[in-house]
Amino acid sequence: MKNNKRIFSLLLLACMIFSFSACAQAPEEEIIPDYSSEIGEIDFMGAEFKFMQQNEEHTTGEDYFGYVANTEFADLALQRVKEVESNFNVKVNVITGKDIPSTIQNETYAGLVSVDAAQAKSTQMGGTVRAGLLYDITQLGDYINYTDAEKWGNEELLKPFFWDGGLYGVVPAAWPIHKYRSMDGPMVVNEDHIRSINETDPREFVEKDEWTWDKLEELMPVYNHINNAGDEVKALYTTVHWLFRTIQSTNGEGFVFRDENGEYQLGLHSDKTFEAMATAWDWAFGDYASFVYIDTSNVWENML
Predict the structure, then answer these.
(1) Domains of the chain, with CATH numbers?
(2) Which of 170, 231, 249, 284 is the 20 to 30 Å CA partner of 181?
(3) Whole-angstrom distance, CA of residue 30 vs CA of residue 44
(4) What would the mean pLDDT of 2-19 be, rounded to a whole number?
């Protein structure tokens, strides 16, 4: 009976991911996605599907499939889940605000079924996997083709989810939170400062396709100035962590690349990445350090 429930759970999860895939394929000008129902006739006979998700640390803690609750995209996701419930005769119960590993462990030991599927970081679930509390997805090959890299994540992405020959997680290509996390570590501009010294807004260089790290180095001495109150305003305000991470992730190298021998390599170890790290070091501690303010606490709160 437990195996049947696991199979039903995977089928429903596949249905839901398929639905979100249709959302990802909508034209850019469309706001409301055009969903497809071509997934076959499946009736879950009124069963409840419990899905536990991790709350994002940058939100109120009331996420819905990666979107902040009561926003347009969260409402669209909720609408689609209601359609799935209706079309496949199932109740989808999304659970948030709990410690996922602890909940699964405690309730399983108590003889309860916590959830049918969960979304969490791989680093959180190591103990749960080693304790044998999760099901090996490789045993469900007839229901979910985890080797389909375009749908469930390529081999490199799946490696953190393997343990002792089993696979205990996938990275759905159309998972909404992928879109949320596709932009990280942005650079923001203080328009008032730029205007007060009568200099060019950096976004103009972006529009002309002239914005590079070299361009920023050229402008640092220009943007660094003394304001009307006599205080020095640094050209760049950041933390060491985000400075290095932002430059590393925008150096033009992919996370995985193929070298001259045809072998796949991790982009974090490429020459481009090392050059980017050298640039970040130069900004933080080298020739450009006098134009950069390194915050050691909360950069956002202090900047505001």
Answers:
(1) 2-176 (3.40.190), 191-303 (no CATH)
(2) 284
(3) 32
(4) 45
